[in-house]
Amino acid sequence: MVGRLTTRFPKWVLAGAGLLFVLFAVLAAGTMDALALNRYEALNSESVAAREVLGDQFGTGSPNVAILVDATEGTVDDAEVAEIGRGITEALAANPDVGDAWSYWSPNAPETLASTDREHALVLAWVPGDADHVRGEVLPEIDETVVQSVDSPAAEVVLGGGDEIFRVVAGQAREDFLRAEMIILPLVALLLWAVYRRIAPALVTLGIGLFSVVGTLGILRVVTNFTEVSTFASNIALVLGIGLGVDYGLFVIYRFREELAAGRSVEVAVRRTAAGAGRTVIFSGLTVAASLAVLFVFPFPFLSSFAYAGIAVVATAILGAVVVLPAALALLGHRVVRKGPQRTGEEGFWHRTATRVMRRPVIAGGIGLVVLLALGAPALGINFGSPDDRIMSADQPVRTMYDTIRTDFATEDADAVQVVAANADEQALPAYAATLSEIPGVLRVDSAAGSFAEGDRIGEPGPDGAERFSDGTGTWLAVLPTGERLADDPIGLVADVRSTEAPFDVQVGGYPAELTDYRDGVVERLPLVLALILVVTFVVLFLMTGSVIAPLKASVLNLLSLSVMFGVLVWGFQEGALSGLLGFTTTGSIEPSIVLLMFCIAYGLSMDYEVFLLARIKEDYDRTGDLNGSVPRGIARSAPLVTAAAALLAVSFAVYATSEITFLQQLGIGMALAVIVDATLIRGVLVPAFMRLAGGANWWAPGPLRRLHDRIGLREDIPDEPGDAERAAQESRPTDTAPAR
């Protein structure tokens, strides 16, 4: 039906697509401002519950704003510097958006709020509210009215804190988005021209990618009216929108060229392309969308954002490739055909490679398997950790601030673990605080009963005295770790605090606990995500092939391909082998949600190529019944498409290696590598080796499943309709253009 519509009314279809594009563009214009600045937090977790009690009952919380005061000469105890510090503290306390503020210059302040050489000191503040409010409204105001208002040669002032870190990261991500857009679009256009050797199909294919990007941003703008969507979703919209739009456009145009080469008319070729290739594109898109939709399993807005973006990308890319592109092809006709002789399916590098592999499948497949396992071996040492300021470049002021804190301060008071008791026995408090202070790696415990270190009371209970830690009914304690314990094992620290027996009911929160709960929430659901992805992709590939062996093979090979991606992530980023080249600072760990996101995207794209490849092999096998010959022929017929698509997608992702945000560098390098490995080693070596060894079992399925596939399965072999031959002959007949006499 789509094919008939696009061939009968191509101009109307394109006009409708143009109006839809304009609507998407209008919506997309406000998307960047509507995207949210999500925090790393697990809703309904113990740490979030502790934060709420701390804020509601005690009027304080983990400091999310920090201001570093650097004495240009002398120390922070000098009168002029101290006056600046007290002035900043008072200005923050007077701000109606600030819930609590204290500093090195507050009464009974701990010495750890100053550096060991007394050249630097901190002002800390807690600002309640969501990330958008704090980062979008409060922090800019504090920066302008408090930080920038300090004009004294005695001190320099830098704004920091957890929310400031990720405000800067989000701003840098937006800059990277714009820079990537300026690089990717002309580069993809140039590569498309090199692939097609015709400017018209290159521009049309790029147009489908742009349609997907703008459409996705427009859809995300609508979604933001109902839920939070992370600002990082825009980066995914760009690279996936261009990638999938171009992928599907290439597939449809290559199929259209084949139909024309078979002698069919433009009208017939468009209809057959829309019916055959269109269904493959839809199935492929469903695979990618399903892989990203599993992110909804996680109750974290940060990860759900990528599910919304991924589904929107797939929907708009399919709409562009299956509806808009056929209409354009109906008007372009033979102008999309590559100039010069056309190769057949039994020519070229990939056909020869697959044939050689199938002659010695055990040796060739074994070598390919060893290479994949060797490259993926570092992934066994992956260490999931929490992000900090080191995800940004070292020349950012806030990053420089925290480098100073790590180097010159004994610890970081803002990263204390907070133990909250809404109702507490104050007589049991001293002993409990002393017990917590004996945990290895704990520098000090502040409480209403005083400050404790290694079991001994060492001083007053910190700024503002005991009333800060108690409201007469309940109490809370600040467990301050050493810098070494915080850097090496924050998760273990939180576990030790939670496992310490308390004389009353407590909830453990604070920034380390929030990151721990977020990490645990991600890691605990990884097996479920893996199972869901495997089941969904198995169903899609079964519907396409009618086999239960082919989907299993595809899943195993895709996991091997992804192991290479994770191996390079561990080797290059966790261990720091690429730090010199890319200019990032290694932390010895990988943030788990980025790994999960990369897994879902890479798995979906791998299955994307698998659908294209198996569709051609199965089509050839159904037509010829040749078990062995159909494999290299199918690979050769899909090779130009998959090679071109992989190159374009790898380039699109690789652009993010130039980012100043480590997350985006990981995404760019890892995804580009996964695409290249999948399109070369997997497709060219392991697929033909496996299919040669499996023989007839490649297409086996139990009787009930085979009958089910006969009813609802996907097939690309579209039969000719009555009149197709006559239309093709009429189109190929010379037209007399001489005027009538």
From TrEMBL:
Keyword Transmembrane in annotation: yes
Keywords: Cell membrane, Membrane, Transmembrane, Transmembrane helix
Pfam assignment, any one: MMPL
SUPFAM superfamilies assigned: Multidrug efflux transporter AcrB transmembrane domain
Membrane topology: Multi-pass membrane protein
Regions crossing the membrane: 177-196, 203-224, 236-256, 277-300, 306-333, 362-382, 526-544, 556-574, 594-615, 635-657, 663-682
Gene3D superfamilies to which the protein is assigned, alphabetical: Multidrug efflux transporter AcrB transmembrane domain
Transmembrane helix recorded as keyword: yes
Coiled-coil regions, chain positions: none
GO cellular component assignments: plasma membrane
UniProt-annotated location(s): Cell membrane
Main subcellular location: membrane
SSD domain boundaries: 202-331
Annotated segments matching region Disordered: 716-741
Residue stretches of biased makeup (Basic and acidic residues): 724-734
UniProt similarity note: Belongs to the resistance-nodulation-cell division (RND) (TC 2.A.6) family. MmpL subfamily.
Full protein name: RND superfamily drug exporter
Naturally occurring in which organism (per UniProt): Actinoalloteichus fjordicus
